Description:
CATH architecture: Sandwich
Protein name: JmjC domain-containing protein 5
Order of helices and strands: HEHEHHEEHEHHEEEEEEEE
CATH topology: Jelly Rolls
Main location: nucleus
Largest sheet: 9 strands, mixed
Number of strands: 13
Domain JmjC: 144-289
Shape: globular
Structural class: alpha+beta
CATH class: Mainly Beta
Region (Disordered): 1-31
Helix content: 10-25%
CATH superfamily: Cupin
Bound molecules: 2-oxoglutaric acid
Amino acid sequence: xxxxxxxxxxxxxxxxxxxxxxxxxxxxxxxxxxxxxxxxxxxxxxxxxxxxxxxxxxxxxxxxxxxxxxxxxxxxxxxxxxxxxxxxxxxxxxxxxxxxxxxxxxxxxxxxxxxxxxxxxxxxxxxxxxxxxxxxxxxxxxxxxxxxxxxxxxxxxxxxxxxxxxxxxxxxxxxxxxxxxxxxxxxxxxxxxxxxxxxxxxxxxxxxxxxxxxxxxxxxxxxxxxxxxxxxxxxxxxxxxxxxxxxxxxxxxxxxxxxxxxxxxxxxxxxxxxxxxxxxxxxxxxxxx
Length: 289
Ligand SMILES: O=C(O)CCC(=O)C(=O)O
């Protein structure tokens, strides 16, 4: 059966659920597209792994009880890195690049091309998992990101290797309403600073990710894009901010971490997040309410 693929292409009148998928929207002339095609062949070496300063380090907590998580993080809407809660997931031992070739190699998935979805030259295309792995994971000449894709609905076999974190039962929504997305890419993928309308558990299966978070209370210091499509995405490049253009960005209080395999980051509703992969990386996100 045809997979339930949904490209996060140019959004229609309704806003896409997440910030992704907007920048490349809009019409482009052929020459611009050709230029984009050439640009995306060139991969700029990503900067090294940043050092997280102690004053901005996110708290870590190991296997908190439901009550502890609810009272200290969910109700006050404080982000936290949870440890020890996915060690038992079969994916932690099973998943590798080779494994994806075996179980999903022939399946077609949407891939984002270009470093970040706010770049002009960003685009998306459909390709098989085998082609994605050959072109963007094994040969890292340019950045391709299998991002925000409901891979587990497409390939239910993979769903057996993960489970919905117990803490989601603290929400008011039904389990069926939880959106589970896969994020698979090489070193150097960047999700620009943006916010989403649901709570999120971002579980790291392999590879590391550098994550910066800012409270929704700092929104005005983060210069969201104007207009409907990208208003949940900041104009500021977190790792190289233009402080002349965005002077109040220095007032925004950052929390950060290097998310390691086996760790799960709780990102409260509307918390701004910026994420750069430091290795070949696979994450699973759970959006819940
Ligand atoms: O890991 C990433 O690149 C982005 C994840 C994200 O934005 C999300 O889970 O909402």
